[in-house]
Design goal:
341 residues; alpha/beta; three-stranded antiparallel β-sheet; 10 helices; 35% helix; 18% strand; globular
């Protein structure tokens, strides 16, 4: 099968590319190599057709889609987008770029799309209140964060909430620019599918880590930030109280899930959570990395960022049941691997 992989020079993209090549697919990569994502130039592996172009370039898309049967769309501006001045770039790069890609796919008659989405589309996800059951936590107020009150309360009674796994049917509640752009990408893709009869697998990635993760860009994830600090001999700086719950999933597992969706999801529009299934706290990760790298113990700072969510962990059972996927890399093995990179 010939596929177009956008963003194939990125962190996750390179692992998806390797997975595709391992399975014998013919791959065309389109990537703009934007400097805020890529620290150095990228050379495609032998046998990979490469278009150094922006996903908003309609002519480049038409050339790249020639003979393609399916598209895996990973190209995006990532990060939280906490600065309002970032809004136009997120909207142009992610929303506009996806719209251009979908229009080009319609021109080329390509009807299979695997879209890299994110768990950030859920906002704070779902909490469980003893009185009101499943509720959507309200956005956390800066005054509460500044006072060290990090847990979001029940929006109805103000009582503390228990955490709960989030299914793909949970309400979408984007709370920063990146999250809003990911929701827009999913909606644009659904619009395209209804008009063209195409299929969409929207892969809602959780906190991805592993070899090749960006370390020194504004978009580095928490694992990369902690690892970089430890390699400098510094203690990892843990925001809030370190109790934020996340689902850390290895990039090779994410790549396998993405390619599996490209192969097996052939009709309709369907979202899939992509997580390990084992929630951990940010403090857990910091301590595991400090131990693996034999570095100083993490320091809990109490600092916070507006737009960060407190807890977001997924139910990935749909992906396991419908696409026959399961994660292969344990948290412990993944942490030890990071220490050797």
């Amino acid at each position: 099968m010939k596929v177009l992989l956008t963003g194939g020079a990125g962190f996750i993209g390179q692992h998806v590319l390797n997975e595709l090549m391992t399975r014998g697919d013919e791959v065309c990569v389109l990537d703009s190599l934007r400097t805020d994502v890529h620290g150095s130039r990228w050379t495609p592996p032998p046998g990979v057709e490469f278009h150094a172009a922006d996903v908003r370039d309609a002519d480049a898309l038409d050339r790249a889609l020639d003979g393609v049967e399916a598209v895996l769309h990973l190209a995006a501006k990532v990060g939280l987008g906490v600065d309002v001045q970032d809004l136009p770039d997120y909207a142009s790069s992610n929303d506009g770029g996806t719209a251009e890609l979908l229009a080009a796919m319609a021109r080329a008659g390509v009807k299979r799309l695997t879209l890299a989405s994110s768990m950030v589309v859920y906002g704070e996800g779902v909490g469980h209140c003893g009185r009101h059951g499943a509720v959507t936590p309200a956005p956390r107020a800066e005054s509460a964060l500044a006072a060290g009150q990090f847990e979001p309360p029940c929006p109805q009674c103000g009582e503390p909430l228990a955490t709960a796994l989030v299914s793909e049917d949970a309400p979408l509640d984007p709370r920063n620019a990146y999250a809003s752009s990911k929701v827009a990408q999913e909606f644009y893709a659904a619009n395209w599918a209804r008009v063209t009869g195409g299929s969409v697998a929207a892969m809602r990635y959780h906190n991805v880590y592993g070899p090749g993760m960006p370390r020194d860009t504004p978009y580095a994830g928490v694992a990369a930030i902690f690892t970089s600090a430890l390699r400098r001999g510094e203690a990892p700086q843990v925001f809030e109280d370190g109790g934020q719950r996340r689902d850390f999933v290895h990039v090779r597992d994410v790549a396998a899930a993405t390619v599996r969706a490209c192969e097996a999801h052939l009709s309709s529009v369907r979202a899939f959570n992509v997580g390990s299934g084992t929630p951990r706290t940010v403090g857990d990760m910091a301590r595991a990395l400090a131990e693996a790298l034999k570095g100083p113990a993490p320091r809990v700072t109490g600092h916070y960022r507006l737009g960060d969510v407190r807890h977001i962990t997924a139910d990935s059972s749909r992906l396991r049941a419908e696409l026959n996927w399961a994660p292969q890399v344990s948290f412990e093995d993944g942490m030890r691997e990071l220490a050797t990179l």
